[in-house]
Amino acid sequence: PQTINLADYAPPSFLIDTVDVDVDFRRGEALVTVQLSVRRNPAVKTSNDPLVLDGEDLELISLRLDGVHMAPDSYHLDAGHLTLADLPDAFSLETVTRIHPDGNTRLSGLYLSANGYFTQCEAQGFRRITWFLDRPDVMSRYTVTLHADKAAFPQLLANGNPVASGDEEGGRHWAKWQDPFPKPCYLFAMVAAKLDVLRDNYRTTSGREVQLAIFVEPGKLDQCAHAMSALKKSMHWDEQTFGLECDLDHYMIVAVGDFNMGAMENKGLNIFNTKYVLARQDVATDVDYENIDRVVAHEYFHNWTGNRVTCRDWFQLSLKEGLTVFRDQEFGADVHHRSVARIREVRGLRAAQFPEDSGPMAHPVRPASYIEINNFYTATVYQKGAEVVRMIQTLIGKPAFRRGMDLYFARHDGQAVTCDNFVVAMADASGADFSQFMRWYEQTGTPHVAATGRYDAASQRYILRLSQSCAATPGQADKQLYHIPVAIGLVGPDGQDLPLRLAGDDSGTPASQIVLSLCTETQEFIFEDVPVAPVPSLLRDFSAPIVLEYAYSDADLAHLMAHDSDPFNRWEAGQRLANRLIIAATATLSTGGTPIWPASFAQAAARVLADADTDPAFAAEALSLPSEATLAEQLDVVDPDALHAARNGLRRFLTEHLGAEFLACYERLAPRGGYRPDLIDVGHRTLRNVCLSYLCEADSPSTRALARQQFDTADNMTDQFASLMVLAQSEGEERQQALDAFYQQWQGEALVVDKWLQVQATSRRPSVLNEVKRLVEHPAFDLRNPNKVYSLLRAFGSNHVHFHAADGSGYRFLAEQTRQLDAVNPQVASRVARCFDRWRKFDASRQAHARAALEMLRNHAGMSRDLFEIVDRQLG
Ligand code: HT7
Ligand code: ZN
Where is the Peptidase M1 membrane alanine aminopeptidase domain (predicted)? Predict the structure, then answer.
């Protein structure tokens, strides 16, 4: 397969001003007639380039140039392209193409799902619908007409505004839509389906009336209210926060059960995975509700960051994704719980992005090359990209960041631009120099910053020394120095922040927190007038996506846990303590020893529980240990059994010491009637369920009875699912009873069945692989449905101890499933294959098993480009 390089970017030789699409749905096929008005790009000097249109799995029926039929010998067709030479400077081109959406299991382009036809064009799905210049820097105005059977497909939707509709012979109908905004083809969408609709409207600050609609499968209207309220909240937030109004008359969301990712921001016609639309208290958890808020907001925010200003090429993907994730994070923080939201973002970054940055798929936030762009919708482009945007805001402050956003839109509205354009707008609006900062877009790997601190009582100075380094990653042996914002405070013995005055800086009143810029390899920062030896609170609010090393004593960490004014670092101190204990215990267990857990850790956890009432959601995070995937990154050679035993050992230790406290908290937080997904009740439920999970570490008849009681009486999915999760780990008969009851109750709700699969795939029980193998054969599982695949197969791949089983059984199983999946849906197959990324971190015997499984995959005939790129990198 061919590698595409950023360095080879060249502007398109032709532009397409208007696109008139006519789609006739008939007997499982679609006849797609497209009129293009094409002209040579005046910015490109060569005058006789051929026009090379992209096309994939298309059957060309006819071609007309300026109305004149073209014979097959006057153009060139090969796999993937239609080439026309000797063209005038401007012309119209009509293509008639037949496509087969009913057989499209890749879910890219036009495809059939339950209730009708849907599209997914990002990144390169439009070429699976018709011949086109399928690249984001070609922006066109679209008119779309759809024709279909009226009874089977009553809704005919496309981007923009409905302009006309009518009936046709034979019980058919048609509808015409026009999108006033020029857009790249990846934002094209259409739907022909039988769906129910929830309608509402929103009036923008300047008085525009926007008609809102959410389309869902028949019978699901009672699960749409939360998504609609999320949409209105997002619209209001973007007006308040960034002064950005909706530019549309119609904003539609269509939910579909078969979808490769979460959702898609098509202009005015978002298409969503049902997972991020449907919610009702009995079928969706608090986390689902929050995710819906975030994803609805994310897609809505793309209307400005992605659609109005789009990407010049796919290497710039983080221009829209990193920025939009940052915006949805800030929205989530404003409407939910700021510090808990930040903690969860960092947990996610450490569990997914840090391993990616150290593994075979390591790539910069702006990748320099790819084989298949779909493989680069990654934690690095999204989450690290958001951290890069956040660092810009941290360095220049919120007011300057807002000015930078304004300038970015003023300069680039309607354009397809690069990450440089964004950063230049920020630099120009703030006066800051971001030249060194740009390395965050170019280099792979997670930087480490080693910190040491020294207090000099005589001079009342505190000297902080920071040194940065970044390990070599594939293809980038030598790293250039980063510009790293390090937010810090100094915490005094009384727990108060000390006023900070940097030597040489006499401006203004000393602050309790400042942002240091670490730009050289080693830098010393001297703080004056420090009256007592402080404990440094470093990297507050996780001000940079790095690993910060400082030799905190256990007492320092206990002090920060109890007093740090930065909630993130209060949480972080507890994680550091837990981390230290689990890593040490893993080594002890690996060599046949028995870990000894310090009572001080139980005391620190007891203090968190005692103070939990002030902020239960925070307490829940503080009591939750780092994940095995996160912990594994710190080990040179991972012994997954020892790591698993160590982490669970620490959980059991807490249960043994704090059983009474967990039970008291559990009982104190018993629901007081009426489910509400609000801040207070969510916090209570979260903490209560953390207590339940600790109590059930004992796996005794009484704890199982407690869980079963919650399972039977819960009036909401959060509590029901939390109890199912703990029962699914247990060894008693309650386990199978609860799993069966859950399936009986919810087999008609696809998204709840996904939870049922997931809870079994992630179980710690030794027989999990056999259970997953049985579930693959279960009628509830379907290899063609990405949600099912992610819930069972990818979830098993994230089951650290069992996927990495010593006998290689987990590897063999997942490789074989991936091979079968590749023939159905390569995008999803390559996402599942990512579970193998860290295989080299394990012992030689496990590595041999993993290598054999990967080689089997690489050698299979007809492997997709998607999967090839992943496996080839993994095998190196
Ligand atoms: N921009 C959307 C990306 C997306 C996507 C990419 C590849 C294949 C399928 C896809 N579905 C959606 C999602 C987003 O970031 O908003
Ligand atoms: Zn996005």
Answer: 227-440
Res 672: pLDDT: 87
Separation between Cα atoms, residue 492 and residue 862, nearest integer Å: 64
Question: Would the CA dihedral through 298, 301, 307, 310 be positive or negative?
Answer: negative
Q: Percent helix, strand and coil across the chain, each rounded to 5? A: 45, 25, 30
Q: Which residues pair with 192 in a beta bridge?
A: 117, 156
Amino acid 509: pLDDT: 86
SS3 586: helix
Q: What phi and psi, each to the nearest 5 degrees, are found at residue 525? A: -120, 125
Widest Cα–Cα separation across the chain: 95
Q: Which ligand has an atom closest to residue 323 CA?
A: 2
Rounded Cα distance between 188 and 270, Å, is: 10
Q: Which residues contact 28 (CB under 8 A, 6 or more apart)?
A: 100, 101, 102, 112
Which residues participate in catalysis according to the annotation? 299
Bridge pairing between strands 250-256 and 209-216? parallel
Mutate to test the pocket of ligand 1, among 272, 327, 377 (most ligand atoms within 8 A of CB): 377
**Alpha-carbon distances of 464 from 453, 489, 494, 528, 605, rounded to whole Å:** 5, 11, 21, 11, 30
Nearest to 440 by CA among 402, 395, 401, 399: 395
Q: With residue 559 as reference, give the H or E element that holds it.
A: helix 554-563
3-state secondary structure of 210: strand
**644 Cβ contact list (under 8 Å, min separation 6):** 628, 764, 800, 801
Which of 568, 635, 573 is closest to 600 using CA atoms?
A: 573
Minimum CA distance residue for ligand 1 atom 14: 264
- pLDDT score at 187: 99
pLDDT of residue 508: 79
* ipTM, two decimals: 0.98
Q: Which two tokens stand for residue 516?
A: 């240091």
Ligand 1 is surrounded, with C-beta below 6 A, by 120, 122-123, 260-261, 263-265, 298-299, 302, 321, 374, 377, 827
Please give the number of the atom of ligand 1 that sits closest to the Cα of 325: 15
Find the 266 Cα to ligand 1 centroid distance in Å: 10
- What is the strand order of the sheet 76-78 is part of? 51-54, 81-84, 76-78
Atom of ligand 1 nearest to the CA of 299: 16
Token digits of residue 202: 């929103």
Pocket test for ligand 1, best of 124, 264, 381 (most atoms within 8 A of CB): 264
Residue 650 alpha carbon to ligand 2 centre in Å: 38
Q: What is the pLDDT of residue 506?
A: 82
| Residues with Cβ–ion distance below 5 A, ligand 2 | 321, 324
Which ligand 1 atom is the nearest neighbour of the CA of 265? 16
Distance CA(394)–CA(578), nearest Å, equals 28
3-state secondary structure 431-450: CCCCCCCCHHHHCCCCCEEE
Q: 374: CA distance to ligand 1 center in Å?
A: 9
Q: Note the ligand closest to the C-alpha atom of 314.
A: 1
CB 3 within 8 A of CB 370: yes
Question: What's the CA gap between 801 and 640, in Å, rounded?
Answer: 5
- Compute the distance between CA of residue 422 and CA of residue 327 in angstroms, rounded to an integer: 14
What is the pLDDT, as a whole number, of residue 779?
98
CB neighbour burial string for 82-113, b if at least 16 within 10 angstroms, e if fewer: bebeebeeebebbbbbebebeebbbbbbbbbb
Locate the ligand 1 atom nearest the alpha carbon of residue 321 and give its number.
Answer: 15
Closest residue to atom 3 of ligand 1, CA basis: 264
Between the CA of 260 and the centroid of ligand 1 the distance, in Å, is: 8
> Does the pTM of the predicted model rise above 0.95?
yes
Residue 788 to residue 754: CA distance in whole angstroms:
6
**Residue type present at position 266:** N
- What residues contact residue 435 under an 8 Å CB cut-off, 6+ apart? none
